[in-house]
Specification:
The protein is α+β, with helices and mostly antiparallel strands. It has seven helices and four strands; from the N terminus they run E-E-E-H-E-H-H-H-H-H-H.
Length: 181
């Protein structure tokens, strides 16, 4: 149940009058919903949440401020949708074989941001986890030791780096240099 209150500035504080009856005041607008919820409960015997209190503020620019608040909410929703679309495009392009820098150029973000998006991707994380598991398993089987944690970590980092580059980047350059010699 939503309850409405008319709010006015008296020169020193905000004064709120509930439609259901009752008056309260506060020095800051943010304090009013909680106080109005208490007044509502005292007047009607019915407890309500602060989110159920709707303020009708009679003050210069209040209507414009409300419009701005609604526009910001719409913008945040649109921004979230764009972020999800960007994530999908980055994943699709990477799966198709594009380099991180090429994806960054096409999408219009930095290569560091593309790397972050890929790291947040469940598919990419699963690939990285699978590589880590395989390296650790093969290392333990190969060496027959369970106390090989530092060596496993080093081998895992190298394997993950190789899987991320997928034949591109530094590993490709080093192969080219080796072929030229």
């Amino acid at each position: 149940m939503t309850t409405k209150a008319r709010v006015e500035w008296d020169g020193h504080r905000w004064v709120a009058v509930l439609d259901a009856g009752g008056v309260t005041q506060a020095r800051q607008l943010a304090q009013l919903p909680a106080r109005l919820a208490e007044v509502h409960e005292l007047m009607t015997g019915e407890a309500i949440s602060v989110v159920d209190v709707e303020l009708d503020i009679d003050f210069t620019g209040a209507v414009e401020a409300k419009v701005l608040e609604e526009e910001r909410a719409e913008l945040a929703t649109r921004q979230q949708a764009l972020a999800e679309q960007t994530q999908q495009i980055v994943e699709q392009q990477r799966e198709a074989g594009a380099s991180v820098r090429d994806i960054a150029w096409m999408v219009g973000v930095s290569h560091q941001r593309v790397q972050q998006l890929l790291a947040e991707s469940p598919v990419y994380r699963k690939l990285t986890d699978d590589v880590k598991r395989k390296v650790a398993r093969s290392f333990v089987l190969e060496k027959g030791r369970s106390d090989a944690a530092p060596a496993v970590a080093k081998s895992t980092r190298a394997a993950v780096k190789t899987s991320k580059t997928s034949g591109r980047g530094k590993s490709t350059k080093s192969r080219r240099v080796s072929a030229d010699r």
